[in-house]
């Protein structure tokens, strides 16, 4: 059980911690207590005071200064930067920029998943923050929706100066530090963690923001960690603009995941994009209109005690003040359109198909499988195809790469009149198609797949979809955006 805070920290008014004057307490978590405070110039900051029992650990004291100095080197791009770290008597504290906005989990809980330009901006903003964090030699280790604040200027990642300090507590207590639904497979296995773990968490966060649920589900920590390490993520409902990058980010092998910088380049469709430029794009497409103060459903259900996950905003009445995010208009719509073209190479309308366009069963390597063609969409001469393969046989175990290889490059479109075949389009040495997971699937597991094709004649209203192992799905209608 966490130790109770000392009385003078519970009611901090009238005293300072270092040069900072606490104004009110924002929350409390496993690492310490967070206050809204003012610096000597009167500016608002978030002041995190570490728990005395942590400060008494020699390992913590030795790591505190090293990690705090590293965190202060992080550039101020899509982050709540660490401004200061110090010692007041026996109290260690960290000071970060105060971000006025709710966390992502509160917004999704209250209003549902993000869509359109808001989702695009979130994906770019968090990737930008990770690129800045990693460039400074820091690994966040605990990226999750509650550590992403939605400010009027865009998403801001917080607590990258705290997550590594939590290792001291983990080493002393033997507990796992992190949120299971957003931990990487190597974290779940207790292996060495690198910046690739943050990229995996990015994939989980974007999937959550787009669908309203973490891709590996919820429940008891051991069950979630097992799914993280061994199961295919559930990405049903994820916008097809982001699916390919999310799938690559969620690869079980950290060596196969893109870096945060590479994520940023793929999202913006340009090489060597600077994080400063990416931050400007995010800010430009992120609306700043503000809604009346209100309490979210999350706060109505239970008090939020997790100070470590937020230096978030509350007004003096205790209700959360937050700005809804929406796509900007006018010139900003041009920037949003650029993001849309880069992030949405597969087409995609606003309405999902009401049912599969074709279905086939097959027995492959002793496993019973069911495949459906879920959507075929056109934008100009580009056509995207969405497929789903479900393991249906009782007790079946299936290794998808035996059939597809490491990518869905063998799936082809067939022009019925002339018999011409179209292979998935190529980009950056690989196909614009799903990366096939390197793991076993069992009964009931679902494998969503996609592939994108270019140069398909615009006059075609139907197409054949040739799927390895399942054969030709004939006369599949093509939906035009």
TrEMBL record:
<dbReference type="InterPro" id="IPR017441">
    <property type="entry name" value="Protein_kinase_ATP_BS"/>
</dbReference>
<feature type="binding site">
    <location>
        <position position="48"/>
    </location>
    <ligand>
        <name>ATP</name>
    </ligand>
</feature>
<protein>
    <submittedName>
        <fullName>Serine/threonine protein kinase</fullName>
    </submittedName>
</protein>
<feature type="region of interest" description="Disordered">
    <location>
        <begin position="292"/>
        <end position="320"/>
    </location>
</feature>
<feature type="compositionally biased region" description="Basic and acidic residues">
    <location>
        <begin position="301"/>
        <end position="312"/>
    </location>
</feature>
<keyword id="KW-0547">Nucleotide-binding</keyword>
<dbReference type="InterPro" id="IPR008271">
    <property type="entry name" value="Ser/Thr_kinase_AS"/>
</dbReference>
<keyword id="KW-0418">Kinase</keyword>
<keyword id="KW-0723">Serine/threonine-protein kinase</keyword>
<keyword id="KW-0808">Transferase</keyword>
<dbReference type="GO" id="GO:0005524">
    <property type="term" value="F:ATP binding"/>
</dbReference>
<dbReference type="InterPro" id="IPR000719">
    <property type="entry name" value="Prot_kinase_dom"/>
</dbReference>
<dbReference type="InterPro" id="IPR011009">
    <property type="entry name" value="Kinase-like_dom_sf"/>
</dbReference>
<feature type="domain" description="Protein kinase">
    <location>
        <begin position="20"/>
        <end position="273"/>
    </location>
</feature>
<keyword id="KW-0067">ATP-binding</keyword>
<dbReference type="GO" id="GO:0004674">
    <property type="term" value="F:protein serine/threonine kinase activity"/>
</dbReference>
<dbReference type="Pfam" id="PF00069">
    <property type="entry name" value="Pkinase"/>
</dbReference>
């Amino acid at each position: 059980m966490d130790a109770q805070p000392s009385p003078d920290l519970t009611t901090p008014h009238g005293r300072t911690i270092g040069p900072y004057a606490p104004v009110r307490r924002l929350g409390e978590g496993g690492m310490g207590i967070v206050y809204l405070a003012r610096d000597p110039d009167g500016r608002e900051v978030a002041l995190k005071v570490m728990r005395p029992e942590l400060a008494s650990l020699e390992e913590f004291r030795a790591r505190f200064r090293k990690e705090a100095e590293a965190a202060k080197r992080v550039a101020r791009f899509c982050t709540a930067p660490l401004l200061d770290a110090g010692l007041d008597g026996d109290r260690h504290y960290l000071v970060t920029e105060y971000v006025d906005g709710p966390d992502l989990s509160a917004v999704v809980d209250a209003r549902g998943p993000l869509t359109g330009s808001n989702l695009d901006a979130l994906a770019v903003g968090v990737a930008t923050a990770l690129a800045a964090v990693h460039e400074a030699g820091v690994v966040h280790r605990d990226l999750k929706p509650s550590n992403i604040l939605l400010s009027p200027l865009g998403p801001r990642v917080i607590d990258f100066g705290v997550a590594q300090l939590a290792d001291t507590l983990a080493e002393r207590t033997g507990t796992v530090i992190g949120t299971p639904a957003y931990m990487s497979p190597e974290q779940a296995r207790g292996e060495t963690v690198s910046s690739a773990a943050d990229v995996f968490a990015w994939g989980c966060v974007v999937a959550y923001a787009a669908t309203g649920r973490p891709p590996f589900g919820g429940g008891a920590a051991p069950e979630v960690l097992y799914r993280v390490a061994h199961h295919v993520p559930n990405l049903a409902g994820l916008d097809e603009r982001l699916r390919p990058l999310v799938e690559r980010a969620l690869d079980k092998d950290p060596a196969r995941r893109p870096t945060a910088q590479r994520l940023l380049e793929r999202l913006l469709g340009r090489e060597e994009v600077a994080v400063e430029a990416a931050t400007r794009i995010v800010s430009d497409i992120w609306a700043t209109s503000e809604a009346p103060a209100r309490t979210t459903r999350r706060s109505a259900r239970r008090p939020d005690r997790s100070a470590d996950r937020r230096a978030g905003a509350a007004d003096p009445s205790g209700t959360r003040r937050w700005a809804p995010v929406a796509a900007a208009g006018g010139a900003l719509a041009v920037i949003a359109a650029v993001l849309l073209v880069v992030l949405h190479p597969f087409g995609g309308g606003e309405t999902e198909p009401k049912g599969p366009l074709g279905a086939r069963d097959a027995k492959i390597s002793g496993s019973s499988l069911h495949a459906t063609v879920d959507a075929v969409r056109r934008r100009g001469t580009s056509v995207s195809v969405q497929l789903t393969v479900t393991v249906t046989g009782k007790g079946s175990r299936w290794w998808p790469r035996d059939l597809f290889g490491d990518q869905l490059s063998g799936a082809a479109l067939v022009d019925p009149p002339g018999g011409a075949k179209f292979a998935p389009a190529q980009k950056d040495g690989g196909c614009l198609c799903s990366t096939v997971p390197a793991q076993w699937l069992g009964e009931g597991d679902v494998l969503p797949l996609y592939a994108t094709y270019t140069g398909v004649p615009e006059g075609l209203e139907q197409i054949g979809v040739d799927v390895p192992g399942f054969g030709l799905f004939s006369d599949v209608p093509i939906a035009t955006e």
